[in-house]
Amino acid sequence: MKRMIIGFACLWPAIAVAQAPQGQAPDVEAAVRVTGTPERISLPPQLHNVWYDEFDAVAGEYTLSNGSNMSLGMWGNRMYARIGKGAPLQLVAVSPYVFVGRRQQVKIVVQEPDRSDSSRIHATVLLPSRMLSSLAPVHEYTTVLARR
């Protein structure tokens, strides 16, 4: 059985050429595009407790490198991010300065604030391109820089 399968696999190119119309080569240009799996941002196995004073150091209004804005804030004991004019996204802390979206594929990495000058903070935001443009491909992600 194994020899028969191997023999058939070896004959496959010859069969394809034989089935092509006379004088015409088989369509070799036809290609199948295989895309990789989309980058996944998953919830951490263990959540990190962020204290109000830790989060207050990074909370506030940020300007994104694409010209939009992002605000980080707390409501009760939950952390939220609003990117552009979108709805607030609930965040979960991976560490004191790394947050992921609870229901949305978003990851925010805030540079640890300098204790002497906490007014200048930089962050990296990884989010689905669809959040920035409805014309973007579904599984594409964009990284934007943020500063406060």
Q: Would you kindly provide a brief summary of this structure?
A:
This protein is 17% helix and 32% strand. The protein is an alpha+beta fold and 148 residues long.
Key attributes of the depicted protein:
globular; 8-stranded antiparallel β-barrel; 8 strands; 2 helices; alpha+beta; 17% helix; 148 residues
Largest sheet: 8 strands, antiparallel, barrel
Compute the number of strand runs. 8
| Helix proportion range | 10-25%
- SSE string, helices as H and strands as E: HHEEEEEEEE
* Amount of beta strand: 25-35%
What class would the helix/strand composition place it in?
Answer: alpha+beta
**How far apart are the termini?**
68 Å
Strand order within the widest beta sheet: 1-2-3-4-5-6-7-8
Contiguous runs where pLDDT drops below 50 for at least 5 residues:
none
Q: Average pLDDT value?
A: 77
Computed over alpha carbons, the radius of gyration is 25 Å
Shape: globular
What would your notes on this structure say?
With 148 residues, the chain is an alpha+beta fold. The chain is built from 2 helices and 8 strands, in the order H-H-E-E-E-E-E-E-E-E. The protein has helices at residues 2-19, 52-58; strands at 60-64, 69-75, 78-83, 89-95, 98-101, 107-110, 122-128, 141-147. An 8-stranded antiparallel barrel has the order 1-2-3-4-5-6-7-8. The protein is globular, with a radius of gyration of 25 Å. The model has no long low-confidence stretch (mean pLDDT 77).
